[in-house]
Amino acid sequence: MRRVTPTPFPDGPLVDAEDLGALVRAARTASGLTLEEAALSAYVAKQTLQNLEKGTGTVSLALAFKVMNGLGIRLSWQVPSDDSGSGGTDAT
Predict the structure, then answer these.
(1) Cβ-proximal residues to 14 (8 Å cutoff; 6+ apart), any chain
(2) Mean pLDDT of 16-45
(3) Residue 88 and residue 75: Cα distance in Å, rounded?
(4) What's 17-74's CATH class?
(5) Which ranges carry the HTH cro/C1-type domain (predicted)?
(6) For residue 48, which phi and psi values (nearest 5 degrees)?
(7) For position 82, what pLDDT does the model report?
(8) CA-CA distance, 81 to 78, in Å (whole number)?
(9) Is the dihedral of CA 79, 82, 85, 91 positive or negative?
(10) What is the DSSP letter of 43?
(11) What tens digit of pLDDT does each residue of 34-65 get?
(12) Domain residue spans in the chain?
């Protein structure tokens, strides 16, 4: 059996495909799963999982969520407040 070395989880909020891939890889390796094992458990191709972890290719959002759910990853988000200057509409 292959030994899996855990990788660190990314710092800060997720902002791009590479950060999401790092999160998926960290969750997979923390669980001790190989690429093959995780792909089988999430019902995706090994290459799809590898592309997701590297932040390359054209992995669909649906497949990314399928993998994250399979690995037990739950995302949360924060909506910017109106006073932050980002987002929201001006109703004046």
Answers:
(1) 20, 23, 75
(2) 93
(3) 22
(4) mainly alpha
(5) 24-78
(6) -65, -45
(7) 66
(8) 9
(9) positive
(10) T
(11) 999 999 999 999 999 999 999 987 889 899 99
(12) 17-74
Q: For every residue of the chain, which 3-state class applies, written as one string?
A: CCCCCCCCCCCCCCCCHHHHHHHHHHHHHHCCCCHHHHHHHHCCCHHHHHHHHHCCCCCCHHHHHHHHHHCCCCCCCCCCCHHHCCCCCCCC
User: Residue 22: what residue type?
Assistant: A
Which residue's entry shows tokens 């590898």? 50
Q: Which two tokens stand for residue 38?
A: 């995780």
Q: To which residue do tokens 């949360």 refer? A: 76
Dihedral of alpha carbons 55, 60, 62, 67, sign: negative
Per-residue tokens: 85: 């200057």
